[in-house]
Design a protein that fits this description.
alpha+beta; PH-domain like; 8-stranded mixed sheet
């Protein structure tokens, strides 16, 4: 999309997957919100391996191990041609900002409501749970810059 400005992103969100969670990142622009698949073979293997070996604590270890990898991938994607990025994976999708009715976010989940569908993801960046970290506040500020009062932060 021409003359589109990236306002920020929310990296490392997850949705249910068969073996391991599907990792995605959300890139927010002044025109649309892109939900991009950033799962890689290594992060899926880490999720499955750590979870199998260590249970719920293993998932936390996998989140920490893949945090920087996903953040780097998301940052690179946000600087590329976003239309090409969208086409690169059939699981990628874009929502026009005008179609978004409400976004609810807390330190665990983000829920994006449109007329057609509600998209719900877990926030998997381990820094989001740390109250001393600015990660959560940065997510909220970026969303509010694009969506104003449609954002409900809890």
């Amino acid at each position: 999309m021409e003359n589109e400005n990236v306002l920020g992103y929310i990296d490392n969100v997850t949705s249910f997957g068969i073996i391991a969670p599907k990792r995605r990142s959300i890139i927010i622009t002044d025109k649309r919100l892109l939900i991009l698949n950033v799962s890689s073979t290594s992060s899926a293997a880490a999720d499955a391996g750590f979870a199998y070996a260590f249970g719920i604590f293993g998932r936390g270890m996998a989140n920490r191990a893949t945090k920087e990898e996903i953040e780097n991938v998301t940052q690179k994607l946000s600087q590329m041609n976003l239309d090409d990025v969208l086409k690169s994976d059939p699981d990628n999708l874009a929502l026009n900002n005008g179609d978004i009715l409400e976004i609810e976010i807390d330190r665990h989940n983000i829920q994006i409501k449109t007329n057609q569908k509600t998209y719900k993801y877990n926030l998997a960046n381990p820094d989001i749970k740390n109250k001393d970290s600015d990660v959560y506040n940065n997510y909220v500020q970026t969303l509010k810059a694009a969506f104003g009062d449609k954002v409900k932060a809890r």
